[in-house]
What we know:
Order of helices and strands of chain B: HHEHEEHHEEHHEHEHEEHEH
Oligomer: heterodimer
Distance between the termini of chain B: 28 Å
Number of strands of chain B: 10
Helix content of chain B: 40-55%
Shape of chain A: elongated
Strand order of the largest sheet of chain A: 16-15-17-18-21-19-20
Radius of gyration of chain A: 40 Å
Number of helices of chain B: 11
Amino acid sequence: MIWTTLSPWITLLGWLGLAGLLFALQRLRVRHRRVEVVTTQFWREALEESRARVLTDRFRHPWAFALVLALVSLIWLAVAGPRLDTSEEAHHVFLLDLSAGMTPPGKLERALEVARERLERLPPGSRELHGCGADARQLLRPDEELPLLEERTRALRAESVPPSVDRVLARLARRTLDRDLHVVVIGGAPVSRDTLDGLPDRVKVSRLPLELETEKLPTNHGVTAAGLAPAASGAPDRVDVLFTITGPTPEEIAVRVELEGSPISLDGASGTRRGDSLQYLVSDLPGQGQGLVISIDDAGGLEVDDRVRLVLPRREPLRVSWAGTRDASLLEVLEADPEVEVVESGGQIEIRTAPATRESGGTLPALVIAPREDREHAFEARVPGEAAASETAIRDLLEELALDRVDGALLARETGAVISLGLSPGEVRELSVWQELIESPSFRSSAAFPLFFSLALRWLADRDEPLAFATAGELPPTGDELPLMSGTTWLAGAGAPFPLPEAGSYRTRDVEPLEVLLTSPSVTRDVAGGAPGTSLPELEPFSAGPPILAWLISAAMGLLALEWWLSRRGAIP
Amino acid sequence: MNSIRADELFDAEFLQSLSTLRIIARRVARGGRFAEQRSVDLGGGTEFRDFRPYSPGDDFRSIDWNIYQRLGRVVLKLYEELEDLPLYLLVDTSRSLYLESPPRARAGLRAALALAAISLNHHDSVGIYPFSDDLETLVTPTGGKGRVLFLADRLAGLEPGGETDLARSIERFESFGLRRGLVAVVSDFFDPRGVEAITESLAGLRHRLLLVQLVRSSDREPPVTGELRLIDCETGAGEDVSITPRVLERYRESYDRFQTALLDFARERGAGWLALDADGDVVTQLASLFERGVYTP
């Protein structure tokens, strides 16, 4: 604990010096020589001449009064805790980094300690503290007292998320400012040049150093990226996994990949060096919804970035059942589609051709090849729950089904009818096509034919590919609100997309598992060295302005000495 | 406390000087003393007739002290009932008279004896009443020229008293109911109760009054410096004083006020006032008064 601004030795020596001086003065204390006199009445009157014994008497010795008043005023001002603080003119916002970079032992505690030291020296009303983790939360409001901060930070911990200080800072800058704003970043979170450039002139940003010997780790490696893609081999039920190891020597780091606990050999995996990162590609992993864990052995480094878990997607064929006469051309198209399986029963989608086209009430999405007289439009789509078709919805559907590639004019001449697309509500998804179009040679021979039907089946299936993973601290990839359940607690925003929580295992609203990963190059790099992003000016370890208190006390002591000297000379009473 | 030996107090030289003083008085008397207008009992009162300059040898009891104080000239009031004007000597024997070296009591006792000698020489009685915190009778009024040595002997036997309380002493004196005479108070008049207590107590005396103040130059110009704890020799009270020019200035102002108060009282009361330098020769100072008719304190 630091007791004084001066070093302990100087404090002790100074105290000894003052004690010695006072001892000498004590030794030199006035010793009255005893003298017996015939009378003291004249001396008594002479001394009482200088004393204002009566309150209502005339005011005597104004200069002596002024001197004593100045002396007492200095002492009182010192007691009042003077502060020559132009910072009162500015509002101070402290952003405490709670990202994964603050997880090393003691780092967050030290950050809280320096934050408290600063906050104590600022007047209430001009300071606030925000914790920047998965979300930004206000730990101390301007009108709150510091003891409340103690309670709020008692169980505070760093989170497995990338830094969010930059995002919070950008949001702060949009405040309406009535005075200068001084933002102080506590921790190593980077701040980008773009964010700084976008700040108003009244906003100043600096960093508060933690002065920790172990603030930076000697070295650190981490998994900084992970991704999934359909297998490049084309196998419909396989996926390729891409992940990146970042650090000073990634090739020396042992990497383990396990699929539901079974190790996957990386012998066939290709590693590509990109700067301080090494990128791995693991091909043709089975897409059956298993958990895939990628981990590294990085002794002495940050632990939270040493492991990620993905849930591989399920790559199952789309089962299509057929009711009615099977059109050979259409069947050929279906069989050529690797993601489609024509089944006799138990299909996920039904194709209905004559004579089954007039059947209704089915619960399966259906592709209906209907006679022209049964359908108003050449292509008709029904979707559940939607309002009357809008121009935008129809245009979107045209693109989604690749109908914009169909030569409608040619088909119109061939069929003698207007080729149109209709959209209407229905209980389940349904897409109907005129029989005459199917039989049209020009349509059959066009590239749009197989494309349309492949897309039509997928549209009918309306598969929501579950997210294999999401990245902590970032907005959901879908752009929508993504309610997540952690344990028994729902994490949801207020109707708007919000950054995902810290790394961990969650379940979506559809009770699908979702892994939230910490893959942040800035975290992995920052804890062991310089952080990407713009460097910020550092605050002095402690700056309380000029030593006003010392000046006041020194001035008071000077006046005291002057008063003593004047009184010795009889110049003042 | 400085004691005074009898042989030192009234040595041969002093007694001889007293003789000179009496001779001066007698010579003047033979040479034309105004023959003491011994008004034959004017009914107990006094009736002013005239003034005339004082001539050496005139009875000092006739001196008009008002004129003396105003003009510094010694003149006689010619109405004095000179007969049977006993002299009552109230001699201060408080501690302050015996503190210094030489003690003021030496000059005070000598002055008392000198005044007694003159009175005796004029065939008047003299009584001696020493006082400090109270008054006592040392010698009841007695007459005769040969009584000087007797009085000297009694005066020499006086011991230092305590604190000065002139008011009580005067009250005591008044209680004696003595015949009207001239009361000569020989003192430094340093009463802890202040000059007001002195003047109030003396104002009520039904006798004629002569104040013989024993002074020293150091009374107004105390030879002290530094940081002192001044102890009043009579009360024992202490005052811590840092002697600075400002303090000394205020001291002198206080002393001057004291002196002025005494003089104003004497003037208003019609009393006589003599300031005798305790360090100087008492007889010389008295002789100067009687011979020159002018006394400059």
